[in-house]
Amino acid sequence: HTINSSDEANDPTASYNELESFDSIWQALRWKQIRTRVPVCCKKTVRSRYMLANLVYLVYAIGILIIDFNPNVNGSSSDNTMDYDYDDNTTTMISVLDQPVIGVPLVNRFYIGLAAVHILSAFLYWWSWAGRSWLDIIMIPEYLNHVEAGLYLWSAIWYSREDTLGGYYTLAIHKIEMTAATVELIASFGWIMSWYMTYVRTLGRGFTLDDPDTVAWLATTISSIIYMIYNIQINVQPEQYGTNLLYTYGDIVYFVGACYYIFATLRDENWFWFLPLSGQYGVAPGRVQVESTKSLPTYGKPTILITDLCKRCRIKNNIPKKKHYEPPQNNIFKIDNELHRTAL
Fold first, then answer.
1. Which one, of 187, 210, 185, lies nearest residue 199 by Cα?
2. Is residue 241 helix, strand or coil?
3. C-beta of residue 281 within 8 angstroms of C-beta of residue 24
4. Nearest in space to 242 (alpha carbons), one of 301, 190, 164, 310
5. What is the C-alpha separation between 82 and 96, in angstroms, rounded?
6. Which of 272, 209, 199, 216 is nearest to 14 (CA)?
7. Distance between CA atoms of 86 and 176, rounded to whole angstroms?
8. Distance between CA atoms of 42 and 58, rounded to whole angstroms?
């Protein structure tokens, strides 16, 4: 979430600029406070690009859960059961990898639609970094997110071509989704880096569960790890496809993360003015003084461009190395001869 230091520092509705204290939640929720604060919060939320991106992200997470757990959608999904062929009095079991994958056209269309929503979400997150250069280092996870979304769209388009568990398209889909899961895992750690470089250093924010941003990126990272483990299992044992439901746990954690991103945005727009500061009422965040060597709040780390890293590498490689001075051999012989004569 982009932070503009000048705007944030002058924003009277920011929580760390709050000068009014409340002794209870009921005092904070009086009509006077609601009438004054809600219109301002609504105005900020409607104009927030980050909120729009998070809402699309939440729609995507809900859609995935509907496919996972709604029997009206997946009730007729593929059940990879054992098939038998009878030849006279002998029974021959079909190879496990030769069993058919029975796809449901409705589910396949849902996955294609959600993949398109995923691409839209990736674009909106990139767009939400207002005031940032497209070469900013914090944009790298957003570009990876586009790659991941494109890979999932590719695999969703091929779902209708699945034939057997060991078929060409089925195994190709596993490899594509394995690649997408790898990119997603790298991007999730990149988002932690982006958050670290941009979050406002003030009370209640940072590496603490009081900060919903922290819970959100933890959930995103955990879900990415779960998807990675699932895809490794499916690629090693393709016969588990359709029966291994580990990915559903990742979808649940993914949804939790989407909800916390919404909470974090509402926190940034000061919708939670009625909550106590660190569990304590009667304390105004803007009046808290911190006895520290650094001033609070501060607004993230300095901007680093991708091209800056390349320039540093070029400068480092172009620095001439100091040569070790070696005196000429002729002079050494002259010095040795003079010392020898002196000794004689």
1. 210
2. coil
3. yes
4. 164
5. 7
6. 272
7. 37
8. 19
Residue labelled with tokens 């699309």: 56
Longest distance between any two alpha carbons in the chain, whole Å? 115
Q: What are phi and psi of 121, to 5 degrees?
A: -60, -40
| Residue 302 to residue 311: CA distance in whole angstroms | 17
Answer positive or negative: Cα dihedral of 6, 8, 13, 15: negative
- AA identity, residue 288: V
Specify the pLDDT at position 286. Answer: 77
| Residue whose entry in the numeric block shows the structure tokens 């941009």 | 198
Smallest CA-to-CA distance from 14 within 30, 35, 37, 33 is with 37
150 contact partners, CB below 8 Å, separation of at least 6:
119
Q: What are phi and psi of 118, to 5 degrees?
A: -60, -45
SS (H, E, C) 299-326: ECCCCCEHHHHHHHHHHHHHCCCCCCCC
pLDDT digits (tens, 9 = 90+) for 7-43: 555 666 677 777 788 889 999 999 998 998 999 999 9
Q: Is the dihedral of CA 15, 21, 26, 29 positive or negative?
A: negative
**Confidence (pTM):** 0.81
Please return the burial class of 6, using the count of CB atoms within 10 Å of its CB with bins 0-12, 13-18 and 19+.
exposed
* β-bridge mates for residue 100, sequence order: 164
- The DSSP symbol for 279 reads T
